[in-house]
Amino acid sequence: MICASRYQTARATCAAPAAPAGGAWSARGRGCGYLAAVPIALFALSATAADAISVPSGQAVTLAEVLLDDAPGQPGKTWARFRFLAPQIARGTGSVTYEAAAPDMDHLCDTLALPYLAEHGLEAARVVISLSDRAVPFGAQDPEATQFFEAYRPEGAACTWEAF
Fold first, then answer.
1. How many domains is the chain built from?
2. What is the pLDDT of residues 1-24, one digit of tens each?
3. Is residue 42 part of a domain?
4. Is residue 96 part of a domain?
């Protein structure tokens, strides 16, 4: 379970569209490029082994931050973005492929994101789960980073995968 005092949320003022299914590998990823202003300060968490979250692939995954922003093209709707560090997805040195990490993202949505939203009384039109091999500021481009993204529609106690 996520402790409210430890994992804080932030609302981004830009509406960065999510990357395509399977993740963005190029330096020309999508996003707002920067956060113009953030009413609640972004709270980045240190990634330690003690914070590791169990996922189907067995890789070490830690929650880096949770962002809430307006849904692209859907005024009044919110997207909840759960950003995780997953060093083992790194190109060249990592051992976890997208195919192995996809079930991890499904699992994180069902077992971490949905309970988090319920605990904080939040409703989201979409939940975006992202895995990154390194810390990358939201909306920033890092051609060396490996990132996987998936979007889900919350439906009761389950997440339904949304194709882009």
1. 1
2. 333 334 444 444 433 444 433 443
3. yes
4. yes
- Round to whole Å and give the CA distance between 101 and 109: 13
Instruction: Report how far apart, in Å, the C-alpha atoms of 33 and of each of 37, 55, 89, 164 are.
Output: 12, 30, 23, 20
Instruction: Name the amino acid, one letter, at 147.
Output: Q
153 burial (CB, 10 Å; 0-12 / 13-18 / 19+) is middle
Domain carrying residue 149: 20-162
d(CA 163, CA 52): 28
Report pTM: 0.71
- DSSP designation for 134: S
Per-residue pLDDT reduced to its tens digit, 72-107: 888 889 999 999 999 999 998 999 999 999 999 999
Return the structure tokens found at 153.
Answer: 């529609």
- Coil/strand/helix, residue 125: coil
Distance set, CA 13 to CA 33, 68, 79, 163 (Å): 12, 9, 12, 25
